[in-house]
Amino acid sequence: MVRTSGERMRERVIKAIDELSTINNRPPTNRELGEYLGGKSTGHIDYHLRILKARGVINHDAKKSRGISLVDQPERPETIRVPVMGTIAAGQPIDAVEDPDAYVAISASSGLKNRDGLFALKVRGTSMIEDLIDDGDIVVVQKQETAVDGDTVVALLDGVTQEGEATLKRFYREKERVRLEPRNPSMSPIYVRPDELRIQGKVVSVIRPLV
Questions:
Q1: For site-directed labelling of 175, which of 4, 51, 84, 187 has its Cα 20 to 30 A away?
Q2: How far is 183 from 141, CA to CA, in rounded Å?
Q3: Are 114 and 159 in a shared domain?
């Protein structure tokens, strides 16, 4: 039996759905399939998706941007890609991107109310060990410039070094100063004036690598 060009294209679409779902840990969009297959239009891809759905090969919910999956493919939860902006360590401003292609994926059902402005940092040191944040962990941070007492924040301390020193600590206000509290009994708090401190964000999640 001679396969038509349409059949060959549909085989490529099936393979692309599987590969993109594995690479990105989420279903592909129609547009992503087109780009992956060499710049095919969304209309061209949609034509083949309708045929594959009618044959029972794929699930395709056109109302969802990521409603494409293979029938025999386990459903993967939708994820959010959060860029890793560097390492939280003394003397290194966090604004410098260490690897623009690095990111962590977190579940879209993780309960995070605001997905905008999220970034991630790799932790160096054990100053927050009693909050179960260890050396090598990754913290997901919501970018914001304010904090309330007890928040775990990423703070940039102006004037400590020429570039400023980034630190991960619990935030507390005390009359005319701010206390940045480590969660390690062997370490002392840092005390600064409010004008010496810039809040970069609040920690909203912690990811621990398996290896």
A1: 187
A2: 18
A3: yes
* Residue-number span of the structural domain to which 12 is assigned: 5-70
Same domain (yes/no): 20, 89: no
Active-site hit among 127, 175, 186, 202: 127
Q: Does the active-site annotation cover 169? A: yes
For 95, other C-beta atoms within 10 Å of its C-beta total 13
One domain, residues 65 and 106: no
Does residue 127 have an active-site annotation? yes
Query: 79-93, 136-150, 187-201: lowest mean pLDDT where?
Result: 79-93
CA distance 177 to 162: 21
Report pLDDT digits (tens) over 174-191: 989 999 999 999 988 999
The predicted-structure confidence for 16-39, as pLDDT tens digits, reads as follows: 888 888 777 778 888 899 888 888
- 40, 122, 169, 202: the catalytic one is 169
Looking at the fold, whether 202 and 119 belong to one and the same domain comes out as yes
